[in-house]
Amino acid sequence: MHATKKAVCWRLFLCSCLLLESSSQDFGGQTQFICTSVPKDMDICAATLQNSVPGEDLKTTVMQLRETVLQQKETIMNQKETIRELTSKLARCESQSGAEPGDARPGGRRKDAGTKNTMGDVSRGPADTLTQLSQTLQSLKQRLENLEQFSRSNNSVQANSLKDLLQSKIDDLEKQVLSRVNSIEEGKPGLRNETEQRGRVESTLTTLHQRITDLEKGQRENRPLDKFQLTFPLRTNYMYAKVKKSLPEMYALTVCMWLKSNASPGVGTPFSYAVPGQANELVLIEWGNNPMEILINDKVAKLPFLINDGKWHHICVTWTTRDGVWEAFQDGVKRGSGENLAPYHPIKPQGLLILGQEQDTLGGGFDATQAFVGDLANFHIWDRKLSVGEIYNLATCSSKAQVGNVFAWMETSLDIYGGASKWTFEACRQLN
């Protein structure tokens, strides 16, 4: 017998018993159960109806139960249809949201990691590529002018010949770049895709940068290894310097450097130190219209520095893990202090220290809008808090000034990428 039919019959049987029990109360309150034999092939429900005492009431009950069952079936069908519609809508929403690009995280420093692109945003069209390459060429021409000034100041025939050679190379490269970008814009056959073409242009630029570096060696053959500055002339996502060794675990630190910039808004990121699992382990950044900030383990302290006036400034930041106490010095003078900056969190080892770019992933995820623009020199790190007197000696080029015991400013300690250049620099001359 069908399950629903069985359930109806059982309910009918129970109703019969209850009615009999109710009727029996008129005869002294005693309950009686009446059992009636039913032929083997006879419908139990029909037999129950036949033998029940209050037949009309039971018929009404059966009709009500059947109506209830039909209503429940109809409700279940409606609910199933609603579930199917909601499931279909959810699937469409998921497919649409999956196709949308990830949003940048607040502050611009924590966006989703993507594949590093050494020539800029891969979503840019040929016109944007031409603009980017033109800026790079301007950087190279600026370096050529610097070489020319060097030749005039030293009255060197060799420097003049190097200058002529460099001018010729830049002219040739400019023609090649313009020709190749025009080919991209016109969609000429023979080029597989824009990505391949950009790779060729980048390779050409890298070769030229290497040639310029070789030419510049003539200027620095006789200078000390620490008498140099790094120049980042453009706000890009491919110009940077990488420190060859990592930092040790530190419970206190002092970071000092010379900076020169007139970039606006914000000078960018002079340095960033990332470790596995934490891209903002130690970062100095001035981005957008925000003041300069020091980040330790992604915790932030605002620094009272004003340096984007196109002049050289000496800045130092000290920090200790106990209570997260920090101090900020500009040009040898204490400008601000605070506490509770990543308290009791030691700076982690085995990371990567980058000059000129902010890391959103370990060694990558550079954003051109956060890149440093300007000159940087005499970058030093200590694993202790320097005294006020020691910092003043550094800012005034005192003979008692020390070098960093964790990282000391040396040409041999850095690898340079993307066209950032090195020039002779002596801090004491800048002060005179």
Task: Give a concise summary.
The protein is α+β, with helices and mostly antiparallel strands and 432 residues long. The protein has 8 helices and 14 strands. It has 3 domains: 86 residues, no CATH class; 95 residues; 204 residues, Sandwich (Jelly Rolls).
Cα gyration radius (Å): 40 Å
| N→C terminal distance | 108 Å
Widest sheet, order of strands: 10-9-8-3-12-1-14
Give the overall pLDDT as a whole number: 75
Beta-strand residue fraction: 15-25%
The CATH C-level name of the largest domain is: Mainly Beta
Which CATH architecture of the largest domain is right? Sandwich
Total domains: 3
Query: What's the β-strand tally?
Result: 14
Assign the CATH topology of the largest domain. Jelly Rolls
**What kind of sheet is the major sheet?**
7 strands, antiparallel
What is the helix fraction of residues, given as a range? 40-55%
Uncertain spans: 12-29, 97-124
Global shape? elongated
Q: Count of helices?
A: 8
Structural class by sheet pairing and helices: alpha+beta
Order of helices and strands: HHHHHHEEEEEEEEEEEEHEEH
Q: What do you see in this structure?
A:
- This protein has 432 residues and is of the alpha+beta class.
- The protein folds into 3 domains: 3-88, no CATH class; 126-220; 228-431, Sandwich (Jelly Rolls).
- It has 8 helices and 14 strands.
- The protein has helices at residues 3-24, 44-51, 55-99, 126-154, 157-186, 194-220, 388-395, 427-431; strands at 228-232, 240-243, 252-260, 268-275, 278-286, 293-296, 299-302, 312-320, 325-330, 333-338, 352-355, 374-382, 414-417, 421-424.
- The strands form 2 sheets. It has a 7-stranded antiparallel beta sheet with strand order 10-9-8-3-12-1-14. The chain has a 7-stranded antiparallel beta sheet with strand order 7-6-5-4-11-2-13, with no helix packed on it.
- Helix 4 packs parallel to helix 6 (194-220) and helix 5 runs antiparallel to helix 6 (194-220).
- The radius of gyration is 40 Å and the shape is elongated.
- Mean pLDDT is 75; it is low at 12-29 and 97-124.
